[in-house]
Amino acid sequence: MKRRMGEEDIAALSALIEAASAEAGHRALGEHKWLDLVQGGREGFAGFVATDTSHRHRLIGYSQVSRGPGSWAVEYVVHPSFKKEPGLRSDLVSAALAEIAAQGGGHVHLWVPKPEEADDLMAAAVGLRRGRDLFQMRRRLPVEGARSTVATRAFRPGEDEKAWLEVNNRAFKGHPEQGSWTLQDLKEREAQPWFDPAGFLLAEQEGVLAAFCWTKVQDDEHEPGEIGEIYVIAVSPDFQGRGLGRELVLAGLEHLAAAGLEKAMLYVDRDNTEARRLYEKLGFVDDHVDRAYVGDVAPAPAAR
Ligand SMILES: CC(C)(COP(=O)(O)OP(=O)(O)OC[C@H]1O[C@@H](n2cnc3c(N)ncnc32)[C@H](O)[C@@H]1OP(=O)(O)O)[C@@H](O)C(=O)NCCC(=O)NCCS
After folding, report:
1. What is the pTM of this model?
2. pLDDT tens digits for 225-284?
3. Alpha carbon separation from 196 to 155, 203, 217, 229 (Å, rounded)
4. What are phi and psi of 80, to 5 degrees?
5. Based on C-alpha coordinates, what's the Rg of the chain?
6. What domains sit in the chain, N to C, each tagged with a CATH number?
7. 8 Å CB contact between 51 and 57
8. Which of 35, 77, 115, 264 counts the highest number of beta carbons within 10 A?
9. Which residues line ligand 1 (CB under 6 A)?
10. Taking the CB of residue 183, how many other CB atoms lie within 10 A of it?
11. How far, in Å, is the centroid of ligand 1 from the Cα of 280?
């Protein structure tokens, strides 16, 4: 039922991912993971397919493993018609975890958009536990009746990196993904096709960088050209609690509305209650949850 992915699978996989994406209303496999898949052969990458043996080996599920800095990422996709297939999810994930064990083991995270009970059962079956829950919140644009009153300016590549990194890393201290960015992390984002300094808004107060709102517009084939993201927002700890957070969210939303977008979205941790309250007051409502399942895989005996 399971085997390592071969070149001939890619067309069938595209169809599987498309079917799952259409049903879910969002891309079922992260973009960089898709690149791993198409380009293939990267170190620390493996894909696994599940087929329906009673129907000419039709593809019904796929999982993949990729090695990131310091941990492994696993993702999986199940065909919408086979969402209730007993053991399918846990078989797909077990294959991925066995590969990680064979490659020396380590910390694993598996993000599931819009998790269902079957995903929690999968995690229990393969020995993963629930990690972070990220809410995706949305609102329509434009915002009627409220305007930002704080002056902002666009990020200047080549000049603002140092000050931005300092504010970002202080504001997000201890945050697993956002709290210890390096200049290289920032430069990598600046090199992305979606990067637009005009939507990366900085607010200075008392001569220093006090807050920022970084917006991102990336066409999603399922919601083309209509949704913009508040990608990262923070207020320097020296300036928090003075209304700057609210002003910067408004400034970001005004930028997105001026760019012609009809909706805005953002991701926020379930336990970031301050930020969630702020977004709710500004009219954002929960759209769905993305859940991380995490665990640690021991090396397989042969890999030790
Ligand atoms: C979340 C964040 C941007 C808010 O910015 P801020 O400038 O401190 O917030 P504001 O002063 O605009 O306050 C917004 C609302 O939150 C409330 N609030 C702000 N700080 C609060 C605190 N420490 N405790 C409780 N409520 C608080 C305010 O009462 C205000 O509500 P109001 O409009 O009814 O007065 C800021 O705390 C931050 O940078 N946090 C770390 C980074 C982060 O988590 N970013 C969001 C990731 S999704």
Report:
1. 0.82
2. 689 999 999 999 999 999 999 999 999 999 999 999 999 999 999 999 999 999 999 999
3. 9, 17, 9, 12
4. -55, -30
5. 21
6. 2-131+291-303 (3.40.630.30), 142-261 (3.40.630.30)
7. yes
8. 264
9. 171-172, 233-235, 240-246, 268, 272, 274-275, 277-278, 281
10. 11
11. 12
How many residues comprise the chain? Answer: 304
What residues pair up with 107 in beta bridges, in sequence order?
296
SS3 for 221? coil
* DSSP secondary structure code for residue 180 in this structure: T
Amino acid at 20: A
**What is the secondary structure of 125-141 as a DSSP string?**
HHT-EEEEEEEEEEEES
Residue in 289, 295, 298, 299 with CA at minimum distance from that of residue 116: 289
Give me 231's structure tokens.
Answer: 């990608």
Q: Angle of helix 273-281 relative to helix 244-258, nearest 10 degrees?
A: 50
Dihedral sign of CA atoms 100, 136, 24, 85 in order:
positive
pLDDT of residue 53: 84
